[in-house]
Amino acid sequence: MTRILLKNKLDECIAAWRSAGFSVLAPVKRNDLSRFEEVERSADMALDLQITERTIKDHFFPQTEPLLRYTIKKHDLDSQEMLPPDIRRVFFGVRPCDASGLAIDDPLFGWDYKDQYWFKRRDNAVIVTIACTTSDDFCMCTSVKLAPDSTKGSDVMLRPLQNGTGWQVEALSDRGTALLDSVSSILQESSETPAPPASVPVKFDVDKAMEWLADPANFESHFWKEISLRCIGCGSCTFLCPTCHCFDIQDEGDTYTGIRRKNWDSCSFTMFTMHTSGHNPRNTQSTRWRQRIMHKFNYYRGKFGVNSCSGCGRCTRQCPVDMGITETLQAISNLQG
Amino acid sequence: MGIQVQFRKEAAELLSSGAVKLVIGYGEGSTPERRRPVFVRTPAETERLVLDGACVANLSTYLISEGLLSDGKNVAVFLKPDGIRSINILAAEAQLNPEQVVIFGFDIENGEARPLAGRKASDFTQVVEAAKAAGLSPELQKEAERLDHISAAERFEYWKEQFSKCIKCYACRQVCPMCYCRRCIVDVNQPQWINTSSHTLGNFEWNIVRAFHLAGRCVACGGCDRSCPVNIPLRLINHRMAKEVLDAFDYYAGESTDQKPVLATFRQDDPETFIL
Fold first, then answer.
1. What is the residue range of A216's domain?
2. Spans of chain B, pLDDT less than 50
3. Chain B hits for A270, Cβ within 8 Å
């Protein structure tokens, strides 16, 4: 016997969490875009989507975020920090790849300076993940050693029941346990079995690829030029990535007063590494694409012991010229023979 | 002989004779429905070239890659009529020498590619004239008219909602053959003229700046619209600007390699209704 949540009880759950002070966010399809938004009822949720076009990263590391307000006075400077509000949030219906993405980024945002903007939101969030029972042509979680039912980064795991009426529930953390306890009267004991997770084919040998990437002899390989010929240098792969985390700091205002903001930036952009002198150490698209791959599958692991890719496949799924991590790592693992 | 076989053969001949150094065409993509740009330098590699109804991207954008044409050598490229118009504009705006561009012209009818006769941009005058005569896309016209007939406040709300989705990835700019500036206005940062933030104001600034810069230059290839990862209907903005320019100046972008850029020139009889 395990605990289950029936789909027809989901509205009661949402109501209970909302009355306990949580905002509930779930996949929503609105204005021709799927993303996580606040919902009031289950009818607003698009839980049938394979994956949202945008990631839940947006809600922890927004595309633009005010850091502080400043006023420059005659002899000194006034500044007030603008921390995110204290809102407790339930993210319902997260995919395992997106939940893993948060866990992958946690060490980055906390390794030297603890980024309050990230952790304030992380500490106030409960991630309720639904295991995938289907996948599409671009899913590649198994290629990066995750799985359609990975629990990484999740507080609660929901496994869809075979009969389609609901989900088997499992708490994975204290926060998850507390969230489920708050709706214990809505959950039921059941012997219904969960559906098997999706079977996602392994598309490349990540170990072989990492070995090739770690060899300094390959840094200047002609491979990089060939693979990135068609890259147009937009930032869509980085901005849709659940783990890409680069940002720029900008002051917006007039001479005396303004707001300092943290804005997404992308290693795909020419300007990303442009020096004040005009020299650009990554002055071609091939060096920028190499950086993206090296960062994800070589440098990040070196620093934090994990690859910076959770296999969601958005980089290929939404690339204007059909590039992406899958093609590049496939090609690299083939080079290794 | 099917168009794909014919174009492969001709591409191989051009490469082996040294008439072109590179052929830019389409190849198989990561799924059966997808096509991706491919770059072919040897006759043997022409086997990678694919041409069918799924080949919709405007490949002229690759011709403005820095340095590609600066050695004076020729490059061949697969182009639909919209891409041929892009070549005309790029030539008229002095961005490339049309003599260096060998065109494999094709059009898609009922989901199938069929060849267009010609090799140089100037060979396709009739194709471009036929496109002009056919008028702006009727489907786009219908969508655009719906927006024309709502109130200004409603229209503002509509675009505010749409632009709120923008993440400033600049895929629209990067895929566009008309966006050839080596340093885009939004990348000019000493000082930062345009906010890099993608909040409502920043997103309006970006999308409106781009719309203005494309007025009288966009060929409606749809590249920006297809590339937008957050599905902003950019086609509607560009269509509206194209219609404005057509109505006000009887100007259809990309008619020939020596057509004067509409907003960079003037005529004695231009309408001056905005001057009091």
1. 206-335
2. none
3. 187
